[in-house]
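Deliverable D5.2: sample structural annotation.
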Amino acid sequence: MQLNQLPPLSKDQLLHWLITFSNQLSKGTFIVDIHDRNLSILHTNDYLLRLTNYELHELINQNLSIFNGSRTNNDSITELITHIRLGLAKKFTVLHYTKNGSAFWNSITIHPIRDSEQTIQYVLLTCEDTTEAELNKMVYKLEHEVYEAIDNEDNLQSILSLISKKIEKFYIYDVYCTIHIYDKNYEIKSLGSHNLPVDVIHELDLLTVTPNMGHNLRAIYVKDFSSKSMESKDINYNMIKGSWTKPILTSQNETIGILTLFLQDDLELKQCDMNYLNRLALLIQLSIKYAEQKIELSCLAFYDMETKLPNLQFFKGELAKWIDAGLTGYVAVIHPTEFNKIIDLYGRNAGAELLRQMADRMCKFLPSGDELIARFSNSIILAKKAPLNSFHSHRKHVEPLTQVPFDINGEENYITLKTGYTTFTSTMTVEQCIHQIDIALTNARKINGTSFSMYEENSINQLTEEMNIFNQLTYGINNKEFEVYLQPKINFKTNEVEGFEALSRWNSSKLGFVSPIKYISIAEQSGKIKDIDLLNLTNILQWLQHRIDTGKKIVPIALNISPDHFYEPYFLDNIIRTFNQFRVPPNYIKLEVTESIELGDFVKAKSILEKLNELGIESSIDDFGVGFSSLSYLPKLPFSEIKIDRSFVNSMNEPGMYAVVQTIIQLAHNINMRPIAEGIETKDQLAMLQQLGCPAGQGYYFYKPMTKQDAEILLDQSNS
């Protein structure tokens, strides 16, 4: 509520305006003159009178202390008064009392009011009863303290005493608190109390617990003690005026105890008090349950139920103790490569059984003593006390794990293992160790067969770089940061440019130039390679369309298409839709795909290539020979061109490789495909290719990839 935009009024006018304003608010208000040393109340509205049960004449000319009581915090009141005198806007929550002595939490907000000279003359204080919310906060805080006590393995007796102590200290009324817990025979099993001695408790009238009580979940039992007289050498128990008792129930609605508040004043049980007692009873019920099941919970917390191995939580705790003690050693995560296959074959329990057998073998193969073995998701995690860089000497103990088959569901299964490891010292944390072995395991998974990888510092830099590229890909695509460079294809007979290969390039506004080697694989993994392919195709078609419109020479341009995009359901629709935006004849675009497409789905690949041919778009097979192409499939696929990979061309001076290139060229001619050599860098390579009958090629010997502007100049010069 903002009150700093008032009309320019004098002090007297302000007071009249404030009284009118406060009478219309739906919260309690009172007004004080900031210049009055006593800060006497000048006016209150009806809402405040109903909140405090006072009459108006009883409050006028009184100060705020009229609302104070035995449990009001004097420090809070002093700070509140100080802020009022200084005219500082702020909200306070203090324990106040009504006329009949009923306590409530009062949320007071200070609003300084200025006159036409911007001088603070009055303070308007607005009040709200926030007792319900404050009591909920108390219970919430008490819950945390109780759970902390349970975690510290405090016994039930001390936990109940803690609850009793906190209730007596922080409840809004002066009370004594007792908690009785009963066994199945309704005998007292445990008793919690803070200030009341046990002998005094036995003399007090308590609710009688029977098998049939407690079916009313929200029942509160009230007793009047006004006629009972009792003395103690420590406390005058004539102060006890009555009691509120709440049964404590199990989840099956059986009474297992009672919570009793002995009142030191005559108080009316309100709804907020009932809600408070109900929440306390639930907290006590949970405390009993968790305290009695502490051993079982500890087992559940630190052991994996499927494998019966220690879990990651236990492992972390023990490793932390080693690190804190200044010990050194290594940590390794050992993952069975075939884990998911085992689950698919035999079910999820089989995966757990595989890990259990792995752990059993590790205990046998590893030197006994200073090691920790636990389950880590679908892997085994191992820590060993040892000198730094000692993992290699222990590696021989890990390798035999795979030499004997594992018995899963009565079947013999051989596996391979991927191991990532790092060393630990007293300067590291457990989380750092686990983070590093995760990174090392990722690198080990890139190696075929049983493999080992040690964490290296530059792994983090590489991951950071890959994540930055991934995060910027979408922005780069949406803002068309990708462009194509064109590398000329040269006809060996005419020495003229017969076409170009379009190469994707990305100059990120945030990352700068990003190598295709880095972003292509990330784009494929993230499913964004399709967008880059189509952006590059659009870029090429725009360039060709411009040259057509200006009457300039055009030549065919080849664009590499990712296999992931090639098999995407809407691949052909995407190509056709992009082509339809321009008037470029389809025979001026050639789509290059790697030979790995036939490994995905030969029938589908053939169908797509045939439909491209029907549209007039030719296709070529890129990087031929470096994959696992089947020569029996190749003649059946409608390619018009085979591109000989640069790795073969670069090694043509070797007799064996020369024969390979010769074979590829002859194969291409025999199946009516045109061979194109890539990566030509020397005059000798060109001469050998010409001798073998290769008609065209590309490489740095002729031209490096160039911008479209440079390609414009090259084409225009060759045309003239």
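Annotation notes: The two ends are 80 Å apart (CA to CA). The first helix runs from residue 11 to 22.
The annotation will be released with the project's public dataset once the embargo ends.
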